[in-house]
Amino acid sequence: MITFYPGPSKVYPQVADYASEAVREGIVSLNHRSAGFMEIVKETVRLLHEKLAIPANYHIALVSSATECWEIVAQSLTVQASLHPYSGAFGKKWAEYAYKIKPPIELNQADVLCLVQNETSNGTQVTMETLAQFRRDFSSNEGSALIAVDAVSSMAGIQFDWTLADVWFASVQKCFGLPAGLAVLVYSPAALKRAQEIGENDHYNSLLFIHENFAKFQTPYTPNGLGIYLLMRVLQQVSPIAEVDAVTKKRSAALYSFFEQEMNKSPFRLLIDNPAERSDTVIAVEGSEAAIKAVKQAAQQAGITLGNGYGDWKTTTFRIANFPAITDDEIETLKQFLLSFQQ
Ligand SMILES: *Cc1c(COP(=O)(O)O)cnc(C)c1O
């Protein structure tokens, strides 16, 4: 079975060996305050900096999920309220979670701008140019304003200019090609300073408490040790992000032109018309409910799992993950299937 589901998504096949290694060598039974375990956390953080080209002065912590990061931003980094310009289901959910913790007030009092860089639900993305514009506009507000970015379905798939935001996070079941249950949280010196000014320390996952623990390569609670080990092993294997970025963008350009040119007589069209808004890592394809249902079923019979639509686009789209763990051969198989389906 080949899967193009945009999360949980295809894991690197090597993960099977890494997991059995972790059990065989007793890594999953290590005490999380032991030197051996701390060494794994330290190496994982080092590899994240190296392979994803994260600035040396940006901090990294590992938590459980992106949803947890939404709450950490609201509880530990938001003074009054956060601002959530969104275009899809994940951005909307983030706003809903944040408002339960810090209810919305007047827009001009917002002190954190929350953006979803890659909206997995409809295959749109915020480019680095747009993010730079947000950075200019938002930091000219009174006082210091933070920008927090949900990059769940793009981190480790495309390259970012990390300095354009203060908080970036992603769970690992998308572009990292790993099983769910772990998330990477990256935060700038300004974000840490903000957390210290707020001084919020009421939760097991308060950012200050997490930061204090990670400074010693420890975690507040017994962490997902297997997940951390798998992340470390996958990071050892992947290419530097500049190379991954080039491959991802080459493949997304090819996929978009495939739909525009070779599939132009099919019952399907790209959901997003404006090429500048299209995601490089999640391609959303629109059609009638009947056509979407039929193609998903036929794909399944051909051994291919297409991603279901999500939120408002649940029954009228399917989605294709263009994540690094997916091979060129698998994409070719998908194209051949879609071509044969349209005839
Ligand atoms: C998948 C996804 C999430 C949710 O991640 P969890 O690990 O389930 O918390 C959040 N935001 C975006 C953009 C996603 O694609």
UniProtKB/TrEMBL annotation:
Entry cofactors: pyridoxal 5'-phosphate
InterPro entries to which the protein is assigned, alphabetical: Aminotrans_V_dom, PyrdxlP-dep_Trfase, PyrdxlP-dep_Trfase_major, PyrdxlP-dep_Trfase_small
Single GO biological process annotation from the record: glycine biosynthetic process, by transamination of glyoxylate
Source superkingdom: Bacteria
A family per Pfam: Aminotran_5
Annotated ranges, domain Aminotransferase class V: 109-309
Sorted UniProt keywords: Aminotransferase, Pyridoxal phosphate, Transferase
Molecular function GO labels: alanine-glyoxylate transaminase activity; L-serine-pyruvate transaminase activity
Residue stretches spanning the membrane: none
PANTHER family xrefs: ALANINE--GLYOXYLATE AMINOTRANSFERASE, AMINOTRANSFERASE CLASS V
Name under which the protein is recorded: Alanine--glyoxylate aminotransferase family protein
Species this protein is from: Spirosoma aureum
Record lineage: Bacteria, Pseudomonadati, Bacteroidota, Cytophagia, Cytophagales
